[in-house]
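Quick one from the shared queue. A colleague (R.T.) flagged Integral membrane protein as missing a structural entry in our internal table.

Convert sequence to structure tokens.
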Amino acid sequence: MRAVRAVLRHQARLFGSLPPWVRARQPASGGVEFGYAKGQGPMLFGFAFAGLVETVTMAVLLRHHPVAHLVMLVLDVYGVLFVVALHAASVVRPHLLDGGTLRVRRAAQPELPVPLADIASVRQELRATHTRADGELDLVVGAQTSVTLELVHPVPYFTSLGRRQEVRLVRFHADDAGAVVRAVERARGALSPLPSDPVG
């Protein structure tokens, strides 16, 4: 039941991203945003176009089979809308540096809130290959990640199916990875100001 609720929340976030994306307006966040959708747009819209071609092709092939035609039409339309909504969610749900927390996101997946105090190091690191390892989370966009966070201790992350996992290293993509690293380092520095000079 938990997995079903998690999937429904995921779908709600996904398709709920379409209206603000169509209006070219992002929800007010109050923090510093970092986009990550720039490079994936052409690829996803290519998939959407292929889905449209398939929809038309199946409509012609199944024109004498109304039930099968209806089933395929629903599936094809859902597939096209899913791909477009995936891009929309990536645009309207950027990474967010808000106060003392970095909220790492990827489309409609649950976000990972990382307290700045729990970050041991942050670096710009472009990776195109990723292997599964315990305690590591790879939020890949366009088959790559460009920022790596090492954490002081594991933090919880809930997958799209509601499963909890503890992560101690996070890799994610940002259009301007350098800006993310600089902003996080500045924010971390502000949390630990240098001690003032002792009064003589």
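The two ends are 65 Å apart (CA to CA).
The chain has a mean pLDDT of 87.
Added to the table.
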